[in-house]
Design a protein that fits this description.
This protein is 44% helix and 17% strand. With 443 residues, the chain is α/β, with parallel strands linked by helices. The strands form four sheets. It has a six-stranded parallel beta sheet with strand order 1-13-12-11-14-15, with helices on both faces. A five-stranded parallel beta sheet has the order 6-5-4-9-10, sandwiched between helices. α10 links the parallel β11 and β12.
């Protein structure tokens, strides 16, 4: 089922290795062309454009764009108790996992009387996107909201696509999760239009009035398809974004000690998200590849979304990569820079220590990616498409600004004046030195 790439007899430089990785062909430029008019329409027409786009892409024209509090409360009342318990467990675990990310303020004395303080300030307002599409994602509500709350953000707006099955409202499980997290500003809007509304704001809850429907935000975060990613790129000069997250992917470094049933189940777990999802096995064991292929043949037909899974596993973005040894497997994994990287080897912790490109690393046979998707306490909004080489997963820092606060006494400033004047003249910026000399002369 998986296409097999044999790297055992070859050595590649980093650039060639990246080129040979199984990847989906993604045309972001084409997506940019598609989303630009959608965002411009929202800027120009506000609520009307958002309703038009919901009608076109979600097959429903929502009555409400701002979800009434009564609907949020109703969704919580009707939430299945067992699901509520699972969601509440996820909230507790993720709050604990994100609290450890909070940086500490600090102050350093540079010279006597001269200090620099490091402060961390939360942004004021954020827009969090939760996709709809092929599944419902209350987990993404948690993964977006918790780090923003832990960071201390005061205003949280959340958007999720209008659902035809629920009268133009977002999915009730999404609404119930918002209620459990205390988020009341929720919008029935999706795709590029939602990202544009977050960035620029939107007017007109009804077609006739000019009332503000949605104020612009400082930062937009959340997963989505290529069109959401393209929309984030377009607005990134207007507001902050987390990353251009695309379709999900998993890579698994495994050796002969790995359990084929576990490996197959984990590849399937991500393939069921989307026909374009990527599932990649990296191993130095030919026997394991054969055993995993057999397991996939057995397990895939048993899954609810077996057709979607089969499409994903047989696509050009998925495959099995044969390596000479674990060392080459690590090299391949670092070149691939997976969103999710599992390590199922003897001494998995040591292998994990040699990974420097991955959105999140899942260590050992009993730490599959679905734990991170829901209950492990880690965030599942992670960099895709190789961007883990330079991007982090969504975390508290996405909602914080680092600000340095400088304080020098008269004596401390004077002690540096002569050297500063020399420096300023070397850069032909004599006025810089004059600002310090004015203080010396004014003493």
């Amino acid at each position: 089922m998986l296409n097999v790439l044999d790297f055992t007899d070859s050595s590649f430089d980093a650039a060639t290795l990246r080129e040979k990785m199984p990847r989906a062909k993604v045309d972001v430029e084409k997506a940019l062309e598609a989303v630009r008019p959608l965002i411009e329409a929202v800027r120009a027409e506000g609520a009307k454009a958002l309703r038009d786009q919901a009608e076109k892409f979600d097959q429903v024209r929502p009555k409400y764009l701002r979800v009434p509090q009564a609907e949020i409360d109703k969704a919580l009342r009707e939430l299945d108790p067992a699901l509520r318990e699972a969601i509440e467990t996820s909230i507790v675990h993720n709050r604990l996992g994100h609290e450890m990310q909070l940086p500490n303020a600090s102050t350093r004395e540079i010279i006597p009387g001269g200090t620099v303080a490091q402060r961390w300030i939360p942004v004021t307002r954020v827009g969090l996107y939760v996709p709809g599409g092929l599944a419902v994602y209350p987990s993404s509500v948690i993964m977006n909201v918790i780090p923003a709350q832990v960071a201390g953000v005061k205003e949280i707006a959340l958007a999720s696509p209008a659902q035809e099955a629920f009268g133009g409202l977002p999915h009730p499980t999404v609404l119930a999760t918002c209620a459990l997290l205390g988020v009341s500003e929720v919008y029935a809007m999706g795709g590029a239009g939602a990202i544009g509304a977050f960035a620029y704001g939107a007017r007109g809850e009804t077609f006739e009035d000019g009332d503000v429907l949605l104020d612009p935000v400082d930062v937009v975060t959340g997963p989505g398809n290529i069109y959401v990613a393209a929309a984030k790129r377009l607005v990134s000069g207007v507001c902050g974004i987390d990353a251009e997250a695309g379709t999900t992917e998993i890579a698994i470094i495994a050796d002969a000690s790995a359990k084929p049933a576990f490996v197959a189940a984990d590849l399937i777990s991500q393939a069921e998200h989307d026909p374009a999802a990527a599932s990649v096995l990296i191993t130095d064991s030919r026997d394991l590849v054969a055993a995993v292929q057999d397991e996939l043949e057995c397990q895939v037909p048993l899954r609810d979304h077996h057709e979607r899974i089969h499409t994903a596993l047989t696509g050009q973005q998925s495959g099995a990569i044969l390596t000479r040894d674990v060392a080459q497997s690590i090299e391949v994994a670092n070149a691939y820079a997976a969103e999710h990287l599992e390590i199922q080897t003897e001494d998995a912790a040591a292998v994990a220590g040699r990974i420097h490109n991955a959105g999140a690393i899942f260590v050992g046979d009993y730490t599959p990616v679905p734990l991170g998707d829901y209950l492990a306490g880690s965030n599942h909004v992670l960099p895709t498409g190789g961007t883990a080489r330079y991007h982090s997963g969504l975390n508290v820092h996405a909602f914080l600004k680092s600000v340095q606060e400088i304080h020098y006494t008269r004596e401390a400033a004077d002690a540096l004046t002569d050297r500063l004047v020399t420096f300023a003249r070397a850069e032909d910026l004599e006025g810089h030195g004059a600002s310090l000399l004015a203080r010396r002369e004014g003493n």
